[in-house]
User: What shape does this take?
Amino acid sequence: MTAHLHIPAPRSKALFDSAFVLSVEGRHHESDELLALAHEMRELEYQLGEIASHAPDALAELLIKSALMGFSDEDSPNDYIDANREVIDFYSTHDNDLRRLIEVIRSPKQYTRSEDKISEAELADARQVVKARIEAEPGRAAVTDWTITPAAVALAARGYKQFLNNGRCSILRECPACRSKYSTKVHRDKRIYWHCPQCNTIKEA
Assistant: This one.
């Protein structure tokens, strides 16, 4: 599963939560718009977290000190150096750290939405569940697809639930990757995903 730097993200979380509520209410277009905004916000939060993780702990305090100890034309250079010795020593000691910090600021890591997949072991267990259901109710065989149905069973076992439209049918779209028509809108822990049984991918919406 795609991993991200763990940082507090209260603003993006609030947007994701609101997008989930809209989808539950069937307002999927509004939900999609809010999801796009939530991802933009979370990208900024990750970039700030990445930058902060490279900053030496005492940097903020020393920057404030250096701002308070300014240099004017009337001051002696030696007096300025003496007054700012702590800051100068800090920058000298942490030169490599600060260079890495600047590099992170200039070239932040690319943000990607989380992605997961169902393991082969999970799919094998799901196929056994489907097989047992057909043995108990032979009529199920006519509506069983041996790619889609086991994937749906495995997905449910993971705790994902499908969004349903007013006709109580799954919400489907064409998968952007493989172009199959069975990419299904699902959710777990108030987060929205698209699951494609053909690609075996679970991608954040």
User: Anything to note?
Assistant: The chain is about 50% helix and 10% strand. Residues 120 and 126 are 10 Å apart (CA to CA).
